Amino acid sequence: MRNAENEKSIIGLRYSLAHGVAQAQKVLCSVVAGFGLLFVPGAFAAGTLTPVGAAQQPIQIRDHHVSVVINNGFAQTEVTQTFFNPNAQDQEAIYAFPIPKSASLSEFVIYAGEQEIKGEVVAKEKAEQVYEEEKKSGNDAGLARKNSYQTFEFRVARVPTQQETRIRFLYYQPLEVDSGVGRFVYPLEDGGTDEVAKSFWTANAKVENTFSAQIDVRMASPIDDVRVPGFEQVAAVERVDAGHQRIKLAATNAALSKDLVVYYRLAQNLPGRIELLPYRPDPTKPGSFMLIVTPGLDLKPITSGADYVFVLDVSGSMTDKIATLANGVKQSLQKLRPEDRFRIVTFSENASELTHGWQNGNLAEVNAAIAAVEQLRSQNSTNLYAGLELGLKGLDADRVSSLVLVTDGVTNTGTLEPKEFAALLKKYDVRVFGFLMGNSSNWPLLEVITKESGGFYAAISNSDDIVGQLLLAKSKITSEALHDVALSVSGVRVSDSTEANFRKIYRGQQFAIFGHYDAEGDAVVKVKAHLSGEDKEYSTTLHFPEKDTHYPEVERLWAMSQIEALKRRTMLGALNESEMKDAEKSIGVTYQLVTDETSMLVLSDEGFRRHQIDRNNMARTSTEHQAQAYRMTQPVRNNTAPQSTSMWGNSYAPHISSGGGAIDPLSALLLFGFLGGAGALSRRRRVER
Q1: CA–CA distance from 355 to each of 175, 262, 342, 383, 393 (Å)?
Q2: 528-549 per-residue burial string, b: 16 or more CB within 10 A, e: under 16
Q3: Which of 54, 170, 393, 659 fits as disulfide partner to 107, beta carbons 3.0 to 4.6 Å?
Q4: Which residue blocks in 374-442 are alpha helix, DSSP H?
Q5: Does one domain contain both 256 and 396?
Q6: What pLDDT shows up at residue 657?
Q7: Does the model's pTM come out above 0.90?
Q8: How wide is the angle at C-alpha 61 spanned by C-alphas 625 and 556, nearest 5°?
Q9: 363-373 and 322-334 helices cross at what angle (nearest 10)?
Q10: 388: number of Cβ within 10 Å
Q11: Do 257 and 355 reside in the same domain of the chain?
Q12: How far apart (Å, rounded) are the C-alpha atoms in residues 670 and 324?
């Protein structure tokens, strides 16, 4: 988290909505003209870093290639970059990259001349010490480390003067298909959440020669459509087969300052399903699994009137997002019904109420509120607790209430402890629906806030397609939800599993369970829930195999899920921090993951021998590469439980148009339009629907 004492004062920029939209249109025209014109002056995006005021020229990025394979429940992203040192002496290259949620960084390779040197994960302190020793000795070395939820930082000890050095890194991340629509973000745009880093580093995001990307979307179910918002005119889409589509982009003189967002829509009216991705290479040892549950229930719409409290972050880290926020809230307010009521609370260092009490959803009061929202400007520090506290006051027990929180989650003033946020929400009977803006946003905190209230949150990129975001969000808030959802597995012993109980599951919402299983066998998977005051139970049968080597990546995904669960427990005060750090370090080293307590050290073979570091990651990545190469030669394996034994109904799969060109990136928050004319979720004090 940022320290308020270190945070620089940021001059407030007055953004009227008209100015924001005009600027967005200018940016968008450049985007449509060609991918190479994406650079936004002053943006602190992914790129090489140089200390502010440094005498040397920044390390250049000559080429940048990204290869993505989306394979059912997870994505594999491989990035290859070529650096060039324009200085008269050898230089260290430092590259920063926004961290995708739940990403497990598994490989970091440096190509130094004819030599390929690969990384091994060790304890953070040891990695730092060895890297500095090797750098001082003039040896080729690299280091990949994690900066909390914000960035991965890659260091290359020596880029020879007037020469090129190539690096490659790879990470995995779980993905969800929501209401029949999947979404993948290649994060490049900085979220503006690390003011200390911005005050110290100058980022060079420009790619001097070629940027290219290839995204393979491979699903067991037929794919109806894929979209790359903003890049429709420069993206070539190839339909390889019914469940495999390939997207290619290429440009020159590009810049790594705008996210690449990919939407993929599955065939309409697919049934609800349970999918099993197992991995068990040795039949004498436990296996790992990823269990993906997609409820297919026809949850009915809710049409009652409602109260809405908008809690809006206008702190300094929101400077580049304030126009997006204002435009989204405007669209939301315009669609409220006369019987609805609303309040607007803003917060930076302190919180204040923009509307001075409840306002009715009539035209006059809505227009007055819009005029006030359009005058919002970013300020300095962030007191998120104060914003929530003020937003929660004055709720009417006789009205259905929802709190809509728009923030990047970065808090540095007032109450900071996540367990205090949880305690605050327990006092009120309201669900928080969070919209997390930009990369490097504090998703761990927003996850605590929304889970504690039985709500949910969605991440928003400035490059998002508003059509897709609206469709993903609308049916959740306007429909019934499953309550007190619990998943159980019998017939096969499972252990070390992630959370399998949920207060709410919303329409179209998918959830994943990671765990270990002891032996081969048929297992009955049951999901129990409450719906419309009745107990519901759904079950199906899955086979856990004796041996399966198809998805070795599941081991790392399981390990990252364990680390995130430990961190959540620590945030809520249920686990000692030192115990959590010890466990995080142990899991990170065992499963070769870069975490807050581990780093990936890149050395020559001789260097690893000299420092007595085992080559555990070399063996693990070799296994993963073999499985990945095999999968690409085969049709996507169907991991779904047989429909004859499934008791799930039809899923809700909305249509996303494939035409129409680019969408204004400053309109991402238009998804709040789902609030209008739709009612709201019942509060827990009332009878659960």
Answers
A1: 39, 37, 8, 19, 14
A2: bbebeeeeeebbbebebbeebe
A3: 170
A4: 384-392, 418-425
A5: no
A6: 29
A7: no
A8: 30
A9: 180
A10: 26
A11: no
A12: 9
Which tens digit of pLDDT belongs to each residue from 416-468? 899 999 999 988 888 888 887 776 678 888 888 888 888 888 777 766 654 44
Counting residues of the chain whose pLDDT is more than 90, the rounded percentage is: 49
Question: In this structure, what token pair is assigned to residue 28?
Answer: 């968008």
Q: Tell me, rounded to whole angstroms, the distance of Cα 496 from its chain centroid.
A: 24
232 and 375, same domain (yes or no): no
Domain boundary among 212, 242, 266: 266
Taking the C-alpha atoms of residue 624 and residue 609, their distance in angstroms, rounded to an integer, is: 24
The enclosing H or E element of 622 equals helix 616-632
Distance (Å, whole) CA 300 – CA 309 = 24
Closest CA to 454 of 502, 498, 391: 502
User: Could you identify the residue written with the tokens 């968008």?
Assistant: 28
Q: Tell me the Cα Rg of the chain.
A: 25
User: Is residue 497 one of the residues assigned to a domain?
Assistant: no
- What gap in Å lies between CA 390 and CA 206, rounded to an integer? 43
Residue type for 65, please? H
Total number of domains in the chain: 2
- Show the tokens assigned to 75: 């994505």
| Gap between the Cα atoms of 630 and 633, Å rounded | 5
In 3D space, the residue among 527, 538, 523, 539 whose CA is nearest the CA of residue 491 turns out to be 523
Q: CA nearest 256: which of 195, 205, 323?
A: 205
Amino acid at 64: H
Parent domain of 121: 46-266
Q: What are phi and psi of 604, to 5 degrees?
A: -70, 165
Q: Which of 440, 452, 349, 445 lies closest to 403, judged by CA?
A: 452
* 233 shares a domain with 317: no
The share of the chain scoring above pLDDT 70, in percent, equals 81
| Whole-angstrom distance, CA of residue 564 vs CA of residue 104 | 11
Instruction: Quote the tokens at residue 553.
Output: 């990546």
Matching residue, tokens 């909305």: 654
Verify that 108 and 193 share a domain, yes or no: yes
Token output for 474: 């609308």
User: Which helix H or strand E contains 591, and what residues bound it?
Assistant: helix 577-591
Q: Burial of 689 by CB count in 10 Å (0-12 exposed, 13-18 middle, 19+ buried)?
A: middle
